[in-house]
Hints:
About 55% of the residues are buried. The chain is of the alpha/beta class. The termini are far apart. It contains 16 helices and eight strands. Strand 6 (about 150-155) and strand 7 (about 160-165) form a beta hairpin. The chain has two domains: about 15-185, Rossmann fold (3-Layer(aba) Sandwich); about 190-385, Dehydroquinate synthase-like, alpha domain. The longest helix has 23 residues, at about 215-235.
Amino acid sequence: METVEGFQLVAIPHVIFGTGAIEQAGQWCAQLGSRALLVTGCSSLRRSGWLDEIVNNLSDHGVAATVFEGAEPEPSVNTVQVGRGRLWEAGCDLVVAVGGGSSLDVGKAIGALAGESGEAAEYHRGRQITEPGLPIVAVPTTSGTGSEVTPNAVLIDQERGVKASLWGDGLIPKVAIVDPQLTLTLPPAATAFAGVDAFTQALEGFTSTGANLVTDKFAAEALVHLAGAIRTAYSDGDNLAAREHMSLGSLLAGIGFASSRLGLVHGLAHPIGIISGQPHGRVCGLLLPHVIDFNLQAAQHKYARAAHLVSISGDSDDEAAALALHDWVTQLVEDLEIGQSLSNLGISEEDLEPMIAPAMASGSTKHNPREVTEDQLRQFLKQIL
């Protein structure tokens, strides 16, 4: 009998998953507080009618909600600081974050920093979070980031031109409510970007140097659900079954990579996103086939296992199966109309050099299955320009 390798897992929130799960929001929030700051984006949740539904559900269970509709698609530390002000003014004892990854990240950061005295930007720059924050309830309305179960919040410091994660146990929600019906109103392009981000997270979590036997289980199951549903969710947004599989796949990928970390796609996605202003998921989708090609030898066995898991290839030869995965992902990106070169994102050659340092410093790059040098990264970016 073989020995079992040790591993570490990041704490997981209490997860309520399934169509209709949102109806339980009030009862769960009431266990955590009586005055909630409800953090969401600028208008989509209100337009869909879900904002009123959730506020009323909280009220029915004795939780008063102050709504903060300030989360931008690419959220900033300044927005978090404004949200902290709203939270303090309203005397809130709970944060409910509802929306896509940006809304969840803003809400998580507000909750985690609720007890801190410094400006939000200070913690984004490295100051330690030492005070306990407020409990957070996360309700995703997209199937992409997995932010409802991760210990980080991706934010932009516009003053420094830096996009990076705020990390800490206080950013882990107490409760994650994942209701696939909240994703039914997501437009096709947003569905594609979120979906390919989730698939990338599952695959990078699977091949990361931080992967272990437990995170592999989450990542593998995520790949199966996402690969089988992403095209249907994109082309037929009202298909609830496809939305359910996408929501579950995104959730599982998030649980996995929260412990395993990611890879070069996400190491590059932040600096490219800052320069291009393009949605994070689109950047990830564009990069993924190229990064698979870059990692092919170092991660061949894992890529082959992924190809077998999602029935892309039954070939027993690892190289052939890994190549089949590369080709499948390349076709997926084309089907989702994401683009295949950096120029599709408005990137020019003079933009490349400023990407190198932040990408090399990223924890995601450091967990890539193939070690990356500055010269390799520079050459890689030129090749995909």
